[in-house]
Amino acid sequence: MFRISRVRHPATHVSSTGGDGDFDGDTLRKYCATDEWNGDLSNGLFRLGKLSEQLHGLLSPECGLLTLLRCYEDGDRVRILELLEGASFSAASFCFSTQIVAGPSGGQPLICIGHSTGFDDGHAGLMHGIFIFPRMPAEVVGH
Predict the structure, then answer these.
(1) What's this model's pTM, rounded to 2 decimal places?
(2) How many domains does the chain have?
């Protein structure tokens, strides 16, 4: 899944109240772990949270885009690069899913949801988002 949407205010069309029922953070934690990340488009550096750093097999929380992409499945790298490049010129929301193939979590499914902002007044922009790590093995036997 690879999606990008040109919007000024991410997810303004999705209500933050209704539809949640009794859903809470404990329920979410049963099924996945989450971690925040951000990217500074003026220098091309991404800063990952501690969990993301560990699951990606990185030695530092800061890395360049190509270092991050090398952690993902070969077949997804170009599409993810195109998606992030598309969000690096104007405000956009985006999401993608892939698997981490590097590091101790090789085969770990990953969902990324993010947005880019800060392009006014000649600024290079910023990206912010979360990684969602489902608590399940990547390989599913039988469909």
Answers:
(1) 0.81
(2) 1
